[in-house]
């Protein structure tokens, strides 16, 4: 049962103050995700401590954990479009069924990932990337491919970006970071030892650590200053790394587009990059 359904089911048995908080969350989950404990308390005319205690009564250690649960519940509300199947791809599946399952898994993963990250946390991430002296992107395996793709996009905007697929070089680069720099670490499991050690080193050097990881509690999320969450059907989809990668790409593409909008001279940088590449293409075809 999702937390929203759980709260709704318990409303009648709640004390008046808790019922008021619960009813607001059930009726306005999107608004709740954008509010701090103080803001939510002010919105409904209750104390900040009552909001925290309400979260704890539901079994969460903090209001932030309750917000994460509400984010997951909102993500689950989205339905795969009619005609598209979501589920594990089996050995005996026909070609059309495989297509439908693959598309369904990808769509669901991307939609749930977007729902799991509030506009506030995306905006904060954008501020940090925009103001960073240097941006160091790290990841291993499929996450490294996403990191490389994002690094290319950021370079097109003239950003000072560090990325290398070799984890030893990633670690060496992290040793040069400091305050004013940003480490952008991607790991769905949050337990990739190379990525974790690099994040720990960056954090010790005063670097802001942004983690792109799963919703579950994990070592990388505990090191990070900012957490962006990706949702992939790891339990059901045999191609789990595909859906995790799609979820990561959804976030990095979103951040790139928002940076593109924010940066006044972004179009000039992108145009210059395309013009430079077009010269090589012309020489190759001649």
Automatic annotation (TrEMBL):
Domain named SIS: residues: 125-265
Keyword terms: DNA-binding, Transcription, Transcription regulation
Residue span, HTH rpiR-type domain: 1-77
CDD domains: SIS_RpiR
Protein name per UniProt: MurR/RpiR family transcriptional regulator
Domain of life, per lineage: Bacteria
Keyword Transcription regulation: yes
Species of origin: Mesorhizobium huakuii
A Pfam family hit: HTH_6
Signal peptide residue numbers: none
């Amino acid at each position: 049962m999702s937390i929203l359904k759980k709260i709704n089911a318990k409303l009648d048995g709640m004390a008046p103050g808790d019922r008021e908080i619960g009813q607001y969350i059930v009726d306005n989950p999107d608004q709740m995700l954008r509010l701090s404990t103080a803001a939510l308390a002010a919105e409904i005319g209750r104390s900040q401590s009552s909001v925290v205690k309400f979260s704890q009564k539901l079994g969460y250690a903090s209001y932030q954990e309750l917000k994460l649960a509400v984010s997951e519940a909102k993500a689950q509300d989205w339905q795969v479009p009619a005609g598209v199947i979501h589920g594990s791809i089996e050995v005996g599946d026909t070609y059309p069924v495989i297509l439908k399952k693959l598309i369904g898994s990808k769509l669901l993963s991307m939609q749930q990932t977007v729902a799991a990250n509030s506009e506030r946390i995306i905006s904060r991430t954008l501020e940090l990337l925009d103001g960073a002296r240097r941006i160091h992107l790290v990841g291993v395996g499929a996450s490294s491919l996403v990191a490389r793709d994002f690094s290319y996009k950021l370079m097109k905007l003239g950003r000072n970006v560090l990325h290398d697929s070799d984890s030893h070089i990633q670690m060496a680069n992290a040793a040069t970071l400091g305050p004013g720099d940003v480490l952008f670490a991607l790991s769905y499991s949050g337990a990739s030892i190379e990525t974790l050690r690099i994040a720990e080193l960056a954090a010790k050097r005063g670097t802001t650590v942004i983690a792109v990881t799963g919703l579950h509690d994990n070592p990388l999320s505990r090191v990070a200053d900012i957490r962006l969450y990706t949702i992939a059907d790891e339990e059901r989809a045999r191609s789990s790394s595909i859906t995790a990668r799609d979820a990561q790409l959804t976030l990095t593409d979103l951040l790139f587009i928002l940076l593109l909008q924010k940066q006044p001279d972004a179009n000039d940088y992108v145009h210059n990059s395309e013009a430079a590449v077009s010269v090589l293409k012309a020489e190759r075809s001649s």
